Amino acid sequence: MSEIKLTENGGKLIPKGTINFVDEHGYIKRAQAILKNVGNLRLVGETGTGKTFLTYKLAEITGKHLYETSLTIDISRWDLLACDTLKEGNTETRKGIVTQWLEDPEGGILFVDEFNFGANGVVSLFNQLSDFRGSVWVPELGRSLQRTPNHWLIIAFNPTEKSGYSGTCIQNIATMRRFEGIIVDYLGELEERQLIKAVCGNYEFSAKWVEIARKTRDYYRKGKLRTPITTGNLINYAKLWKDHTAEDEIVEIAKSLYPEEEWTQFARFYEEAGKIDFKTLKGALNGGA
């Protein structure tokens, strides 16, 4: 894999061939069209569906510099723009990620993850940057920064994490109408099996764990589990299995995702998956994954 390099402005340059994104649902074409014609893209999807991975793939394909950050309730607009700091008795201006992005002469992609955790002032900053104004005054620099058509903005959030949504309904609607959205979902069952089998080389292992993962996702959506098993988790388990890690040890590793009160439910999923005749299923699917 090629090494991801940093630019002078602090952005990432993603070399060609770095990101192996499985685009089963055709997200890349839609995302490129939105960014080219609108400039503002909203990715909505549960944890582990590939929102960040898709963004990295877009940066790789387009050759644009990638700037990224995640929001928390404690991050202010000045953290993102610029703030004065003391260094060896002197006042210096520390430039935030938004300023670094806007000052990149080549443009670039700014990826803002966990957008639903942003404070009101932060949401209003991105509303200002994403509409016809496309500019912001930065007192520490004594000038305005202007966005260009080459500066693309992507925000992402997990709709399941409703408790963290920020601002008022009006502010959320204001953001929604500025950003054209794509709902990012997990890979389909067959595609995910193929991917995991390609890593571990064993159909039954991949089929069993994809089945377990799909059940955890269903329970996660219903609020009955703290987290789902993601495609990234499955790839890790497949690597461990290929390296001769015993499956009972992989089960213990997977179980660590959950608090103790959810262990019984996870164990039930594993037990149920173990009863499925995947050999027969594979034949029914004309060779399976």
Largest sheet: 5 strands, parallel
In whole angstroms, the N-to-C terminal distance is 25 Å
**What overall form do the CA principal axes indicate?**
elongated
Overall pLDDT, averaged?
89
Query: What is the structural class?
Result: alpha/beta
How would you name the CATH homologous superfamily of the largest domain? P-loop containing nucleotide triphosphate hydrolases
Helix fraction, binned, reads: 40-55%
CATH topology of the largest domain: Rossmann fold
CATH-level-2 architecture of the largest domain:
3-Layer(aba) Sandwich
| Count of DSSP strands | 11
- Overall radius of gyration: 22 Å
- The CATH C-level name of the largest domain is Alpha Beta
Helical segment count = 12
Q: What are the low-pLDDT stretches, counting only 5+ consecutive residues below 50?
A: 163-170
Q: How would you classify the quaternary structure?
A: single chain
Query: What count of domains describes the coordinates?
Result: 2
Strand content: 15-25%
Order of helices and strands: EEHEHEHEEHEHEEEHEHHHHHH
